[in-house]
User: What shape does this take?
Amino acid sequence: MSGHNKWSSIKHKKGKADALRGRAFTKITREIITAAKIGGGDPEGNARLRAAILAAKAVNMPNDNISRAVKKGTGELEGVSYEEYMYEGYGPSGVAVLVKVLTDNKNRTVADLRHTFTKYNGNLGETGCVNWMFGKKGSISVLKESVGEEKLMEIALDLGADDVDNDPESHEFEVRCEPEVFEDVKKGLEEKGVKISSAEVAMVPQTTVHLEGKPAETMLKMMNALEESDDVQNVWANFDISDEDMEAFG
Assistant: This one.
């Protein structure tokens, strides 16, 4: 999961800056609207909406913004309707890439994605071309200041998690679990007073492609360009890039 973890760390740092520019708010607002539209406006009975609201609070989105987005999703307020799609393709050196989007204009989004893939020596592929290389995995980031590693390991495993990852260079632990127990693990950690900074069911690659030098730089630029699109909610890829190259990019 190294590529996934390292890019998640970069996204976390970028997210704070993005929030100041409004990009993070735009993406999360779309997710809240869509989650409320699909599963209703009560976060207690809508796991996807709960996760979206958690992400909103992590970037300090005002409660009024969250409430308006929920009401747009339930139809109480007028708003744009977004459709969800998953696109697949290849980056430099054959890296597999999955892109989840929420858009009100599919044709525009596809044209933008195709342009970005081509610009960075990749190509947008057909449905199913790389999806088989990934599996769903729950990923819960926990602030190290809120709990010790041994205590977190004990709590997490009791709740049904698979493992706890401790990157010494990160200020967070990562709790990993199967999607089926994701909500139970997250809720259980919160009830134990563990401070969660983010939580998602991610598409984790089964194998990785090692990149270095120019291909690594091009891949990271491509990931960044995709993330900067308002239509793009998540990007997953099966690259593995050294910490040094990651840090140089960051």
Q: What stands out?
A: The chain has a mean pLDDT of 88.
